[in-house]
Automatic annotation (TrEMBL):
Family named by the database record: Belongs to the gamma-glutamyltransferase family.
Keywords: Acyltransferase, Glutathione biosynthesis, Hydrolase, Transferase, Zymogen
Protein's name according to its UniProt entry: Glutathione hydrolase proenzyme
Keyword Oxidoreductase carried by entry: no
Highest taxon, organism lineage: Bacteria
Pathway: Sulfur metabolism; glutathione metabolism
Post-translation changes: Cleaved by autocatalysis into a large and a small subunit.
SUPFAM superfamilies in UniProt: N-terminal nucleophile aminohydrolases (Ntn hydrolases) (SSF56235)
Length: 585
């Protein structure tokens, strides 16, 4: 391939007048470095917003929100562990290095593609409310909402049981090996990364007066800063006990008794019985077909089927004639979200306590009826939930694939930053505040009740094509997660982006829909857009009656692995909005 003309000119100048050549090169470099930083659009190929190329490898792939977790997963894969082993190891490391987002005080959901049985398996490892806490107790205190922090927001943490359920069904290497990297980072320390450093000072402001918080996360009373080495020896000891004693060391041993005593002192209701009786559940993922691709999510108590409802509505529009970022794209996406979120607010809850018409909600016929409610020229206001027959959260998502063809889509969270702020004595972790997701309004599907799972926002996803694995992915970010899933899928399938571009593309959010916690939509809500949408789109959306704004940090974080069955290659992607890494070998 020939060189561009300016390459030839530089070559001749170098030969004929080397001094002038070097002077010119120096001036160009100086000018470029001082006035024109390299931008994504300066890449040799791909979309202007792409931050990097897709990562490709044949033997294994790990994509997580922290490089140390990714490297722990790869080490397990290289040593003979499978994708499930690697996912457990990575998640344990994330609980150490990203304690503001996840950890053993939180819940876990996973979708696993098992290469041997060629089947998808779903795991719901979310915990339930305490037996001893009742709706009447909230009424006695004059509360209309579950407090977002403190002991009343604590539900049983399901993460540890989730690890051991995954390991019992699919794991190869011993748990001592899998938890060793996390134990090492907790005991020896790790440098605090950018995102965590942003959240640590706020933790002290919100929770500094709660028991054990400063001892656990701010030794000396000061929040660690970016690049500081942070150690959590108490968590290292806790993980060592779990590695040796199994899940019962956490749910039935001295640790459970210590948690019981702590909660009694702190005015909480979580007791030994709640921990001892906790169980995870293996469940069947549910799906819809979107333009030839089967998209799989987990049924409630999570919000995964919101994705399937939105896709079914959007499938009725010809996006080959609607460009990405156009007014039509953003309008139709937003209106589909509004309709699906009304059903989400009314129906989604713990299926042990409520009848949820999942099959009807994700049916094509139901979507066709709901689609009729969308006005192509006007923003919808106060939509109602349908009648089928009978906000920001902090989460980590990771996905791992191995040489045998196994793939794991795993998501884990303590809900808001540093969860409830309740850190049990000497154990080195903080409990989730997932209990804040109940409503205290009587008679609703998601109304608080003892030993009931709350509505959950964290959702893993998977795509198959022609019965074979195609893609494992997830998007973090509370109520944004279904919106993120749909945008990733549309970017890939409707707009022809590659795996990395699909995550790097500017995102759409919409706030103001009804919520399972009792909030009701009062008007058309607010669309917020990341930088990159043309003003012409914003102007046309306002003409349709939409309110448009900008926000910051609401758009989640994405990881994904795609399997190229023709070349037998894994493709990996990691979100530029987070500090993560996609890597393979």
């Amino acid at each position: 391939m020939g060189s561009p003309p300016y390459f030839a000119a530089f070559y001749l100048l170098n030969v004929l007048d080397p001094v002038r050549y070097l002077t010119l090169v120096f001036l160009l470099v100086l000018s470029y470095n001082s006035t024109s930083p390299a931008l994504a659009q300066d890449r040799l190929s791909g979309k202007a917003f792409a931050t990097r190329s897709v990562v490709m490898a044949q033997n294994g792939m790990a994509c997580t929100s922290h490089p140390l977790a990714t490297q722990a997963a790869l080490a397990v894969l290289r040593s003979g562990g499978n994708a499930i082993d690697a996912a457990i190891a990575a998640n344990a490391v994330q609980g150490v290095v990203e304690p503001h987002m996840c950890g053993i005080g939180g819940d876990l959901f996973a979708i696993v593609w098992d290469a041997k049985t060629k089947k998808l398996y779903g795991l719901n490892a979310s915990g339930r409310s305490p037996y001893g806490l009742t709706l009447d107790e909230f009424k006695k205190r004059g509360l209309t909402r579950v407090p977002i922090n403190g002991p009343l927001s604590v539900s049983v943490p399901g993460c540890v049981d989730g690890w051991f359920e995954l390991h019992k069904k699919f794991g190869k290497q011993p748990m001592e090996r899998l938890l060793a990297p996390a134990i090492g980072y907790a005991r020896q320390g790790f440098p605090l990364h950018d995102e965590a450093a942003e959240f640590w000072p706020d933790m002290l402001t919100r929770f500094g007066n709660l028991p054990n918080i400063k001892d656990t996360y701010a030794p000396g009373g000061l929040a660690p800063k970016r690049g500081d080495i942070f150690r959590n020896p108490a968590l290292a000891s806790t993980l060592e006990k779990i590695a040796k004693g199994g899940r019962d060391a956490f749910y039935k041993g001295d640790m459970a008794r210590s948690i019981d005593q702590f909660m009694q002192k702190a005015g909480g209701y979580l007791r030994y019985r709640d921990l001892a009786e906790h169980t995870s559940n293996w469940i069947d993922p549910v799906s819809t077909n979107y333009r030839g691709y089967d998209v799989w999510e987990l049924p409630p108590n999570g919000q995964g089927i919101t994705v399937l409802q939105m896709l079914n509505i959007l499938e009725g529009y010809d996006f080959s004639k609607i460009s990405w970022g156009s007014p039509e794209h953003v309008h139709l996406f937003t209106e589909a979200k509004k309709l699906a979120f009304e059903d989400r607010a009314r129906y989604y809850a713990d299926p042990d306590f409520a009848q949820i018409p999942v099959r009807q909600l994700i049916s094509k016929d139901y979507a066709a009826e709901r689609r009729k409610l969308i006005n192509p020229n006007l923003a919808g206001s106060k939509p109602e939930a349908g009648h089928p027959a009978l906000k920001n959260g902090d989460t980590i998502y990771l996905t791992v694939a191995d040489s045998e063809g196994n793939m794991v889509s795993l998501i884990q969270s303590i809900y808001l930053n540093f969860g409830s702020g309740m850190a049990p004595d000497g154990l080195g972790f903080v409990f989730q505040n997932r209990g804040a997701m109940y409503t205290l309004q009587e008679g609703q599907n998601n109304t608080f009740a003892p030993h009931k799972r709350p509505f959950h926002t964290i959702i893993p996803a998977f795509i198959t094509k022609d019965g074979q694995p195609y893609m494992s992915f997830g998007v973090m970010g509370g109520s944004f997660q279904p919106l993120g899933h749909v945008q990733i899928i549309q970017n890939l399938i409707d707009f022809g982006m590659n795996l990395q571009e699909s995550g790097d593309a500017p995102r759409i959010d919409h706030q103001g829909s009804s919520e399972p916690m009792g909030d009701r939509m009062a008007d058309s809500g607010l669309i917020t857009l990341e930088s990159g949408f043309p003003y012409e789109t914003i102007r046309e959306l306002m003409k349709k009656g939409h309110k448009i704004g900008y926000s910051f940090g609401l758009y989640g974080g994405y990881q994904a692995i795609l399997y190229d069955a023709v070349n037998k290659v894994y493709q990996g992607a990691s979100d530029a909005r987070k500090d993560g890494q996609a890597a393979g070998y």
